[in-house]
Every structure is written in C-alpha cells, then in structure tokens.
Write a structure and sequence with these properties.
Layout: E1 2-3, H1 19-25, H2 27-41, E2 45-46, E3 50-55, E4 62-71, E5 77-82, E6 106-108, E7 111-115, H3 124-131, E8 137-142, H4 150-156, H5 160-176, E9 179-184, E10 198-201, E11 205-209, H6 225-234, H7 236-240
Parallel strand pairs: 1-2, 7-8, 8-9
Antiparallel strand pairs: 3-4, 4-5, 6-7, 9-10, 10-11
GO molecular function, one term: hydrolase activity, acting on carbon-nitrogen (but not peptide) bonds, in linear amides
Organism: Aspergillus nomiae NRRL (strain ATCC 15546 / NRRL 13137 / CBS 260.88 / M93)
Keywords: Hydrolase
C-alpha cells in the first residue's frame, strides 16, 4: 500500500492560480494516471486527495470537492470519499462532501478499509462509523501544518500541532482497535510544516514514521494480527455491536 498526502497534486488554495480551476476540472485525468500506475506496479495506492471541480448536470452549479480514493493493485477503484469535516480556512473555497450516507467502509485486498482526510482526524465519530462497519484500517491523507494552531496556540507551544497529531493518531488506533495510516504533507520546518506521517496500531502505538517534517518516505511493516489481539483485550468492537449500545452512532 502506497499513501500520498492531501492536495499533493495542486496548490493548497485554488484561488492562487487561475489555471488551478482547469486542472481541478480535469481530475479524471489524474485519477486515470494513478489507476494505470497501480496496475503497472501491482500495488494498492491511496493518491492523497484530489481537488475536483464538478458541475451539477441539473443546476449547472460548480462544486469544489476534496476527494480521496483507494485503488487496488489491479487498478480497480475500491473506495471514494469526499471530505466532510473541512478545516476552517478551507470552507471559503471547498464544498463539504455529501453527508446523507454516512462514512462508508469498503472491501480491499487488505481487508475492510475506511478513508478520511486531514481534519477528520479530530472527530472520533468518523472513525466509529467506519469501525462499526468492520474497517480494520483507516487511511488519512493530510495537509496539516504547525501554523494551524494559530498565533495563540503557537505562543502556548510552537509544536502544539505535532503534539495533537501524535496523540490523535495513536489514540484513534487504540480506541478503535484499528490500524491508522496518517500521511501528512512535508516541507521545511521554517515554513510551518509539521510532518508526523506515521502508522499506528494498538499496543504498539507508532509502528513507523517519517522522521522530521521534510519530504520523505517510510516503509512500515505491520502485523495486522495485533488488531485481533487488541480487540480480544479491549472488546471495543464487541461493545459497539451490542443491541443496547448506549451512544448515538449510526448503525
């Protein structure tokens, strides 16, 4: 499985460059290229997220969507997810994905998988919906920077967003007895990049990461058997499946 970060094919803010709109309208070209690459290399790929400019065939209304895909090693698209929990500055130019169907887990050669994007990490409810459908792995491409803490947060702790990411990724793995694959954008620390790309599983915590915040790659081997071992101890999924489950998550 190869995972890339959010928005890796385009500038973060579509208003920065007029040609961005055309590139986003040609999103299917990018997707087709990754489908061909997955098939050629016989590898599963989550190509970060792709900014898609779509036009409603009925209303003619344009929508910018932030979309992640899971492509299997034969080139088949197994899953698609439109980002729903938008980071605050994103809301000016990205439309929220459809929310009528809930988060959806899907079958892959690696087992049941769910996709989330960046700020979704802050919402345990999103993970719960996927886990209740049997997801064993949740993949989260991201564009998350140290500057996202704002001036007030950075005054308290210049590294606060890295603390947030390290804590949240590992917590989501433990509390859901799931593997969490978090792939963040890389760059120079002085430009506000946070790094923290990592894979986390229960019991182990962080099983491997890209050190520092620069662009890089890490190959992480994970024994997925640890998930069943953790579930045997914590019985989180067993509780979630109870008929008298007392929290209002979707079933």
């Amino acid at each position: 499985l190869a995972v890339l970060p959010e928005f890796h094919l385009a500038d973060f803010h579509p208003s920065h460059d007029r040609s961005i709109r055309q590139r986003c309208a040609n999103y299917d070209t990018h997707l087709s290229s990754y489908v061909a690459l997955a098939k050629e290399c016989a590898i599963n790929i989550v190509p970060g997220s792709i900014a898609e400019l779509r036009t409603d065939p009925v209303t003619g209304e344009e929508k910018f969507l932030n979309v992640a895909y899971f492509i299997d090693s034969t080139g088949e698209v197994r899953g698609r997810y439109e980002k729903r929990n938008l980071w605050i500055p994103e809301r000016e130019f990205i439309d929220r994905g459809a929310t009528d169907s809930g988060h959806v887990a899907f079958d892959t050669p690696l087992g049941k998988v769910g996709l989330l994007i960046c700020w979704d990490l802050a919402f345990p409810e999103a993970f719960r919906e996927l886990v209740m459908q049997g997801a064993k792995m949740v993949i989260v491409p991201a564009y998350w920077k140290l500057d996202d803490a704002g001036d007030v947060g950075k005054r308290r702790n210049p590294e606060s967003e890295r603390v947030f990411l390290d804590a949240a990724v590992v917590s989501r793995a433990f509390e859901n007895t799931a593997a969490v694959v978090f792939c963040n954008v890389g760059g120079k620390k002085e430009e506000g990049y946070a790094g923290a790309s990592q894979v986390a599983v229960p019991f182990v915590g962080c099983a491997g990461r890209v050190e520092g915040c620069d662009e890089g790659m890490s190959i992480v081997e994970v024994d997925m058997g640890v998930l069943d071992e953790a579930e045997g101890v914590y019985q989180v999924r067993q509780d979630l499946a109870r008929e008298d489950w007392h929290y209002g998550y979707r079933r």
